[in-house]
Amino acid sequence: MHTRKNVWQLGGTWAAPILWYARAVEAMKAKKLSDPTSWRFYGGIHGHNADAWKSFGYLSSSDEQPSQADRKRYWKQCQHGSWYFLPWHRGYLFAFEATVRAAIVALHGPTNWTLPYWNYFKPGQSALPPAFASPDWPDGKGNNPLFVTQRYGPNDDGNVFVPVNLVNLNALNDPDFTGVPSGGGPGFGGVDTGFAHNGATHGGIETQPHDMVHVYVGGQQPGGLMSFPDTAGLDPIFWLHHANIDRLWEVWRKNPPSHVDPSASDWIKGPANSGERKFSMPLPTGKAWDYTPGDVASLKTLGYKYDDVSASAPRLLAPAARMKRLKVSAAVTKKAAKTRRAAPARNVELVGATGAPVKLSGGDTSASVPLDPPTLRKTARSLARAAETAAPDRVFLNLENVRARAGASAFHVYVGLPANAKPADHPDLLAGTIGLFGVREASLPDSEHAGRGITYVLDITHIVDALHLEDKLTAEALDVRIVPVKAIPEEAQISIGRISVYRQGR
Ligand SMILES: [Cu+2]
Fold first, then answer.
1. Which of 2, 40, 129, 256 has its CA 20 to 30 A from that of 451?
2. Helix (H, G, I), strand (E, B) or coil at 178
3. What share of the chain in percent tops pLDDT 90?
4. pLDDT tens string 58-80
């Protein structure tokens, strides 16, 4: 049994597991692109775009391309905007870890190396681990393979850290793994899809913290390796970030134990069962490993565990008292989750939507979402009844078909903010923060879904409830304010196809 450990608690900047990781990365980087166990080949499994790779210096005209068969089997495989997001990445990490371990053994290192994780939420651990931030090896000589110049950080100035006050773990509270694709909850793990290399709707844990960490580490404009799915796997820190996401899946499942993975055979057997591409990884033995979500659902079967899966106090956006007001007993929640799993799309209803696309450029953008009074009254009645015996509606803000041409901008979304109010004065009205990881790719006309972009879903139940309690839910429109983390340049060409509000009965 291997134990994945916290990178900040291994015993120093260059503790043995980090030093051996660096040596293995160096060895893998020295291999030919066409070798399935090379560093770049593994990056290509996540995503590949020749122009992006060239511009970052990871591809040259003298490179021998991998064989047609290898590219078809392995490359451009990452699952995003899908309930396969977590299991696909788990298999990707598992095969990568085995490949690094084999490279370490070849260098006469230890035989039990495991991939560390970066838990940026832990106090004092939000900064990029120092071995990744230093251009030098521990002896002061350059060429540290863990260092990446195209990693610009949240302020695009090269200082890399995760601003944890802007990232949250609200997804851990989602009672459902599977989301509702038609405007309701995105679920902890994402919505039911087929093979989704660039799926349309991002799930809860994918939107926050996954996407945000990608954008904060890689940077926004122009963005670095971590900012885009086509290059993210080339950055050595990618793997420690994803080990943390993989760990959070285990945290969600264990806390509370009523959280369960999908039981649908489409999830368990994966897309290959419906005749689509299979999940397949090259192993250091030279063989291919084909796997399904069912194969990777149990860590025990895979032979590893995490040193810590306690529920680190989730950073809720909403004041605790208000969340508590909406909280129903564990028994009611469990029963409701069971019913929803049997009939997932039940009771999802559009409350209102904007009529025209919303363009984002420069500073703040305001939009007004007209709401349908009778549907709104239904929600208000449900919230009024919120008690130990009845589960209230959940309300979701949808930013549909978000498109962009350049970079990986990030923005805060406020709901119900008075016209002249300063956003910073109203943290209770912050619905969430979105990082546009993958949006540029999903906006290309030749992408999987012809450039329809990505849809983000934010749970705004607590805000709507507060507005209701203050008797402000009578208005027939909901004001939405988009506040960019950094001013959005014109060339980013960001637009939101439609902003909508949905209610979902429990
Ligand atoms: Cu990722």
1. 40
2. strand
3. 77
4. 999 999 999 999 999 999 999 99
